Amino acid sequence: DINCGVRVLRTNIELKDVKPRIGVLINTFYNNIPCGIGMAGKLRLSNAEIKEVLTQGAKWMIKKGFGLKEDSINAEEQGCLQGADPSKISTRAFDRGKPQLGTLGAGNHFLEIQLIDEIYDKKSADVMGLQKGQITCMIHTGSRGFGHQVCDDYLRILEKCMQKYKITVPDKELACAPINSKEGKDYISAMACAANYAWANRQAITHWVRESFTKVLEVSVEELGLELIYDVAHNIAKFEKHRLPQMGKQSDADKEIELCVHRKGATRSFPPGSPFIPEKYKNIGQPVLIPGDMGTASYILVGTEKAMQETFGSTCHGAGRVMSRHKAIKAAKGRSIDNELKQKGITVKARSYKTLMEEMSDAYKDIDKVVNICHNSGLSKKVARMVPIGVVKG
């Protein structure tokens, strides 16, 4: 879905502080944060309030008490993409979106308590407040049914208009329109609404994660140090300026032009000095968050200049599947995925056992290999590796 993304919270605590209470903590997360297909959230918003969410994103949530002021500073686009226009959203999308704000969803989305088991770049880790043996919390979710409906609505609109613009594509899922056409501009405005919904969604979940930690461990947010390191988007189109070589020109100078960069299954990886990243990260580069899933590690990296030169400031967003969900269910038949995870020291709570089968580690590529490729190619630079110790799935 649009702005399916990841955020990571650091803590001041270690495994010994959490391990005796990990089962209680995961159950508290599960009870506090609705998850699963079609699940409704705890928020009851009016149409007017939802429209405010669509234009203000995470900032609306923080203004209403669901977070800290610094949370929006440490998010891509500060948790709010400009240009959102709720008038470009269908009634059906509003109907699907209203009850689902503040929910985790299902599929590859998750909430994990993680342990940092490797530090690769001490300078960057120090800036982020990370060290080996520390507990972190990762939230992976997006714009839920709202974003899916926006995509469905505009897929139909774009399918119909392609003939007008003399565009042909091999698959209707690739339906498109010129970016400066009415249909193109309408989609960009609707997409920004869904992106902001996703940032608001992750912000609400962040608030309930903090509440859960403080309730179970009986200490304050300040003592726990539950600070947002960063929040990155995965599936999103952004207008950015990039330098492109002037092919066939006598001058060797590159020309900076504005492009619409669509990161589908990719993560932004901006370098040190970028004006689009928080001040605290200016010397190290943008934090890049690469999630694993249940039984596999996740990574924090930083962006690089090479990514700007070679991939429009982008790197990978995860390992990627090697099995379809249907094949994964067949492969998991007769196995006890939750017990397998328990043997690895991972406590898991899921609304559906089918999700555990679909999302088992065997269904994905080796995350360590994928991240090493990105690191060795210079598209992003490894900072820390986290392994899961507790997981909530839909």
Through-space gap between termini = 16 Å
Strand content range? 15-25%
Shape: globular
The quaternary organization reads as single chain
Summed over residues and divided by their number, the pLDDT gives a mean of 94
Stretches with pLDDT under 50, minimum 5 residues? none
Q: Provide the structure class.
A: alpha+beta
Tally of DSSP β-strands: 12
N-to-C series of helices and strands:
EHHHHHHEHEHHHEEEEEEHEHHEHHE
Approximate helicity band: 25-40%
Provide the gyration radius in Å: 21 Å
The biggest sheet, with number of strands, parallel, antiparallel or mixed sense and barrel status, is:
8 strands, mixed
The total count of helices amounts to: 15
Describe the structure.
The protein has 394 residues and is α+β, with helices and mostly antiparallel strands. It is 37% helix and 22% strand. The protein contains 15 helices and 12 strands. It has helices at residues 15-18, 22-32, 47-56, 58-63, 69-73, 91-97, 122-128, 144-161, 182-217, 221-224, 305-310, 325-332, 337-343, 353-358, 367-376, and strands spanning 5-14, 110-119, 134-141, 227-233, 236-244, 255-263, 266-268, 287-290, 298-303, 314-316, 347-350, 380-393. Strands 1, 2, 3, 4, 8, 9, 11 and 12 form an 8-stranded mixed sheet that branches. Helix 3 (47-56) packs across helix 9. The longest helix is centred in the middle third of the chain and has 36 residues, at 182-217. It is globular and about 60 Å long. The two termini are 16 Å apart.
